[in-house]
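Hi P.,

Sorry for the delay on this. The queue was packed all week, but I finally got your sequence through. Input first:
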Amino acid sequence: MKAPLSWIREYVEVPAEVTTDELTRRLTLTGLKLEAIERPGDQITGPLVVGRVLTQEPEPQKNGKTINWCTVDVGDANGTGEPQGIVCGAHNFGPGDLVVVVLPGGVLPGGFAISERKTYGHLSAGMICSAAELGLSGDHDGIIVLAPGAAAPGADARPLLGLDEEIIEFEVNPDRAYALSLRGIAREVLVSVDGATSFRDPAVREVPQANAEGHPVRVEDATGCPVFVARTVRGFDATAASPAFMVRRLTAAGMRSISLAVDVTNYVMLETGRPIHAYDGDRLAGPLVVRRARTGERLTTLDDVDRELDAGDLVVTDGSGVIGLGGVMGGASTEISETTTNVVVEAAHWDPVSMFRTGRRHRLTSEAGKRNERGVDPTICEAAADRVVELLIEHGGGVADPGVTVVGTPPPMPTIRLATDLAARVAGLPIDAASVVETLRAVGCEVTEVPDGDAAGLDVVPPPWRADITDPQDLTEEVVRLVGYDRVPSVLPTPPSGRGLTRAQRLRRRIGRTMAGAGYVEVVTFPFVGVDSLDALGIPADDPRRDVLVLSNPLSAEAPAMTTTLLPALLRTASRNVGHGQASCAIFEAATVTLPRGGDGAPILPVDRRPTDAELDSLMKALPAQPLHLGIVAVGEAEHSGWWGQGRAVDWTDAVAAVDGVAEALGLRLDRRAVTRAPWHPGRCAELVLGDVVVGHAGELHPKVCAELGLPSRAVAAEVDLDVLIDHAVDLRVAPSFSTQPVAKEDVALVVAASVPASDVEHALREGAGDLLESIRLFDVYTGEQVGDGRVSLAFALRFRAPDRTLTEDEIAAARDAAVAAAGERTGAVRRS
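Then the structure:
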């Protein structure tokens, strides 16, 4: 929010000795943070004066351009009192007009030095300036023409243009919408700056009484629009120019001057904080109606975009249909134009939540919407409309229609019970009850002291412009910020000693080191997902992963829910890397997912005491399950090509191996079995099992998923439940023992049906071999004529070792034969000769 200092001082008196730096320092200490201080005139040096055009002689040039050779009276500013000869290319002025002249020796923004020089056959001594050349706006269409009698020739032009103005830009937090107005900023100055007095509220004014003669209005959704005020101005001159002071202030506030009617509504919005909309009264067809949009309705908004409306949108309609998105943006069909003579002024209060959702849904931002969605004072609609009518008549002529339409009443503010010692207990400062009462009344609250007793304290009604104050903690914040955040003592809590990392924390770090050691890079993604992301992964409609927790206030309308799987965000991250030229990448993320449990929402617990065990239990039961998952994605090459030879592309075994590495680091061993599950390729997806518990899946992604997300073919991914793995992890603090005895190597090739998983054969061999088996590894798979159709040969490397002796040939053979026998019994395997 940008606010000219002179505009602030118009509403509150600040002692002359308070500098701008001191004023902004005090406001920053109370929560209205300074973003920047702009001084537009600082970039202009030298003589910048008012000049009166005496003569203007057009001179066509060979290049087709026509220049004006002018003589300009600049008073005594040039040291001689003689008229100044100046060449000018603009044509929007004439003899007798007052213009802005920079004389030789002046320097304009950008370091543009002005000197006396010969051009177009004349010696031009200075320049007649446009707003763009002075850095006031981007308007290059013509030079600045001042109002008649604005100043005498030779006078300093800076005050007339606002170039001596100081503009303060504030960073306004979303919960302090009242500060998006000069009214709110001036009120903050009053309570923050020592010596500030005489606050003049621009929203306090005498307004005409409501009657039945105004433009008819019907509100069908009083919750979405509690108050609607309509006023009419007839005989308005839409071509009248906006007054110079208004244009200067709008420009200083970062807004563009458009037309008188639009400028007036923007000016009053900046002044009071209340967004206003103006309709061309001659284009309205019948009464204005406020309701929710209906299926199939469309609206072309003022930005010339045709929009399909949603049933949740609040709209303003007339006999022709929808003519505006209430509180967000008006429609093009009733826009003020140069032919407008009758103006209908709308000042309405809109439900902030509905406004926010509508703006987010249509990706539509506006200055009005930004204020409405944060909450605006609902009690000033009549005053704001009256102020607009006053300015329209004053600068555009016409008369105010006697009709005044007011529908609805402002919603009441809540009464909040506040303990008088709460602020002192929270801040750790000695704040007495009298100071609490004085501070709250200073910010506009109505305060009533409650007699002594069990419920002793204060009954506080917040002011209507402070929709952010809803509970005792908000009131405490108001007291503490005005008493002074800088007075709150900084006390470091005493940390408990001797605890260190928990077991889960140690294991999570071990998992991260294991993944990094395997060549994967950790990423952190947003935990949000939308329907489109789940569709891209081919997840069926009945899949539990589509049962998501939808947020009431999402960061993005495209991702309004908490994710139930890490894969959508990880795959988008991989796709982004591929799109930026990183053809091969391997990434992982360890983060929680959110699995709704159903039931009632979480209760709001007090913050002034420790919740009871029962309250904590009810809170925990309302929370969704949030298990810790590990997501893995790899694309491109697992082993890079180079001068050393051909590389190797990633395949499904890399995803499985990555999870196996994590399990091994936790002292666990996972079993695998083939399944079909989105988003993996059928037949190339392994279900990972710990005992009887399915902990995750790994394998090659479906080709359609790769194509949809822009990933290379045969990209792989895995996702496992780390909570389960950590819960079952084996304590590995004891170093493993190694035998010094020699190893015995035995290889066996077994022929089984092709439908038998290799893992089943491996399990049977392991169990049959007994305790002497040290390791087992599948090293070859063969299919062909020698084993027959529908059969496969699996070759395993068995390694036997005893901890205390050298194994004999008979012991080795017995263990090997027992393993083969077990495999034959359980899987039908036959040893290949």
